[in-house]
Amino acid sequence: MMKKSKWFVLFTLLILFISGSQSYSQTDIVPGVVIAHSPKSSGKYLGTPSIVILPNGEYLASFDFFGPKSTSDVVHVYKSLDRGVTWQFLTELEDTFWAGLFVVKSDVYLLGVRGSDRNLSIRKSSDMGKTWSSLVVLKKGRYHGSSTPVVFHDGKIYKGYDHLGVEDKKKPWMSENKSFVMWADTNADLLKTDSWSYSEEVEKPHDMDGTGWLETNAVLGPDGLIKGITRVANESGYIAGYYSVGEDGSVDPDSVKAIPFLGGATKFNIMWDVKTKKYWALTNYPSEILRKPKMRAGGMRSVLALISSPDLAHWKLNQIILASDNVKYHGFQYIDWRFEGDDIVFVNRVGFTDEFGEADNAHNSNYITFQRIHNYAKSGTDRKWRKYINK
After folding, report:
1. Which of 92, 162, 263, 345 has minimal CB crowding within 10 Å?
2. Domains of the chain, start order
3. What is the pTM of this model?
């Protein structure tokens, strides 16, 4: 009897080891805490997740909707009172899209575009996200962006965004897009158009690989100047766009270039950490083990990685956070995140298997989730994810 029990235990441990070393399967539960779920059948997909930590320690998250049955102009706002364990719906904001949250003093802002015409727009909440001001147009035109980070420096707040211009379906995707950085004094009324200044708009150089650049990050560089760092729609996924902004908003033409990056073909957020003296980002790491012939990195969203750099020029893979072999239907993407003590907390736009089957595809996400990376500065990749690391 003892011999049978011993073999049963060994067999069980073997099964657990094998299952633990595999990527997600049809029966797996979506990783993280689910904030919102919209099944494929709804025709409404979930996008542009954003998160902030409020002055009282509560979390606020937002996201929008896109897809064939969506008007692409509605944002939902949720709050967590218990550091991300549970989430409650707060409110719906109409005529807002591609927006990100940020906090200045005790006020919360949501900066994006007006859904109806893509004008650059902003809203404000003075009661921790319960109620919001009317939408204010900051700049007319067709703009594009996402929940990229804001930077506070020398009494100013900086934010990257994109000028979409006129879309020409005959031209390569995003080839008409121009990147810029906007800023305002932190003591100014951020709902007034004249409070904001704008850098020169920068086109992707024609000799840079890729069709276009987008979803600009404003990042404070090692030299004390603001940098615009962009996603680049190219095949490899190993570069990001880069330029330097002068104090007067001018852009040095010689600074416009590609920099090495681990996951630059999909949206990312870069932030400086005073504690570790490094820049950190969560990206879709282009794992070559998953790449099929002629597969563009922008379609590879099933591996999420934490990377870091001391100088924005040399990037290191610190940890594979999530991974799946199911590149077609699984996506962990458009991460927005914040430092919290020794941890990183993040919200995730997820395409994943649900009780009805697969997501429409990895891009057309059916979940918004929340997760925490414990002790990020000492992070390392679990054995089950190591096969995704490029040799």
Report:
1. 92
2. 30-388 (2.120.10.10)
3. 0.92
